[in-house]
Amino acid sequence: MKKPAATGPGGHRARMRQRIRMAGAYSLADYELLEVLLFAAIPRRDTKPQAKALLAHFGSLAAVLDASPARLRAAGLGPRGVAVMACPALAARRLAHADLRGRVLFTDMAALLAYCDRLPNHEPDGVRLFCLDSAGQLLADEVVPLGAAAPTCRAMLTRALELHAVSLITVRDMGADLPPPQGSAVDQHWSRMLYTHARLMGMDVQDCLVRGGGRTVSLRPVLRA
Asked: What digits encode the pLDDT tens for the residues 165-174?
């Protein structure tokens, strides 16, 4: 006697996984791909309504996957969902410039800016953190969410310690907006805090840059004032 198909969210997930195994991910519609991604964030509920709501809100799968954490939260996604949705874009960005990582030497400002020019679109809600070894070789290139000064600095320094970094460089990209000539008061505040605490831990903050509208502002004079 044929066993009846499982019902409910568990049965639906099993069928979706089987479709991927048998026909590949290309067989899934855009909302179904989002459903599968949300499996990890929503363990025991139907994820189809959330997936369709995200598509309706952002207009396309690409827009959902490229949305910032703040925009995903505004669209009704919880913390676990926001974390899961960040993974595909992060993986794509890592693959896009994986050949650069591990062989980059930031010998001067020109080398740093040339590297930044090859990166994907700016992160409006984050600061890019470069961790370097004693030879100036890139150990990690990661985006840290930009919030209050203390948590932002803590997250950067924690990551730098994990990697045994010797020095740090940060870059905040404002997209088309021009940064003030000496950076904003907010940029100056968290950059000074980062520089001060990094020195106490035996690390050097080489520079904190703010880019936008074709202009790059160095906060190095502010840090060492």
From this structure: 999 999 998 8
